[in-house]
Design brief:
With 212 residues, the chain is α+β, with helices and mostly antiparallel strands. The chain is built from five helices and nine strands, in the order ββαββαββββαβαα. Strands 8-5-3-4-2-1-9 form a seven-stranded antiparallel beta sheet. Strands 6-7 form a two-stranded antiparallel ribbon. A hairpin with a 7-residue loop joins strand 3 and strand 4.
C-alpha cells in the first residue's frame, strides 16, 4: 500500500506503508522525486514529487516544512522527540546495493544531501496533510514510471520540433530580408535609376559623387 498526500501548494507527497514497499519506491522513483528521512532514526521514506524541471534545491519553504513534519510524524522515535534533523536528497542520489537490508539505502554523493531542522511536531500541519491522504493498494509503480518517461520524451520531442520550426522561420525571414536589401541596392545602381537621379538633380550631376 502506498499513501499519497498533498502539500498546501498542491504538490504530491507519497510514502510506502512498510520497508518492503519502500524497496519498490526506491526502484521505481521518478527523476523529479525528492526523498526525505529522519536522520539517524528509523522512519518512513517520504517522497516529494516535484513538477518537471523544478529544482530540488529550491523547494518552497512551505512544502519543505510539510515534508519534514510528515517524515517526523511517521517515525516511532522521531515523533516522540523534539529537535530532530530530517535529511533529503534527489531520488537519483539514492544508492542501493545487494548487501543492504530491505528498505535500506545510502547515497552516491554525500554532498548532495541536505538537512532541515525540526524543533517540534506541528499538529496543525500533520492533521492538514492527513486529511488529504489517499491509499492505493498495490499500485503498478513500474508502469507509472514508464508512462511518465514516455510522456516526458514526447513533450521534449514536441518542444524540440517547435523550436526548430521557429529557428527555421527566423532563418527564412533573415534570408528574405537580406535578399530584399540586395535587390534594392542592385535596383538603385541600374542605368535607368542613375539617369532618373541625374535628371532630378540637374544636367551637371555626376553619379560617382554619391560614392566618394
Amino acid at each position: 500500500m502506498v499513501y499519497y498526500f498533498k502539500t498546501a501548494s498542491g504538490t504530491a507527497i507519497y510514502m510506502g506503508k512498510d520497508k518492503f514497499e519502500n524497496e519498490d519506491l526506491i526502484k521505481y522513483g521518478w527523476e523529479n522525486d525528492v526523498w526525505f528521512h529522519v536522520d539517524n532514526l528509523s522512519s518512513a521514506h517520504v517522497y516529494l514529487r516535484l513538477p518537471d524541471y523544478a529544482s530540488w534545491e529550491e523547494i518552497p519553504e512551505a512544502d519543505l516544512l510539510d515534508c519534514a513534519q510528515l517524515t517526523k510524524a511517521n517515525s516511532i522515535d522521531g515523533n516522540k522527540r523534539d529537535n530532530i534533523t530530517i535529511i533529503y536528497t534527489p531520488h537519483a542520489n539514492l544508492k542501493k546495493s545487494g548487501d543492504m537490508a530491505t528498505g535500506q539505502v545510502s547515497f552516491h554523493r554525500s554532498k548532495q544531501v541536505k538537512k532541515v531542522f525540526v524543533k517540534t511536531r506541528e499538529n496543525a500541519i500533520v492533521n492538514r496533510l492527513n486529511k488529504t491522504r489517499e491509499e492505493r493498494i498495490n499500485p503498478d509503480l513500474q508502469a507509472e514510471l514508464r508512462d511518465h518517461q514516455i510522456s516526458k520524451q514526447r513533450v521534449a520531442k514536441e518542444l524540440f520540433y517547435a523550436n526548430k520550426r521557429e529557428e527555421d522561420k527566423r532563418a527564412r525571414e533573415m534570408k528574405a530580408a537580406a535578399e530584399l536589401k540586395r535587390k534594392g541596392y542592385s535596383d538603385f545602381l541600374t542605368e535607368d535609376a542613375i539617369e532618373e537621379a541625374a535628371a532630378e538633380r540637374g544636367s551637371d550631376y555626376d553619379p560617382e559623387e554619391d560614392f566618394m
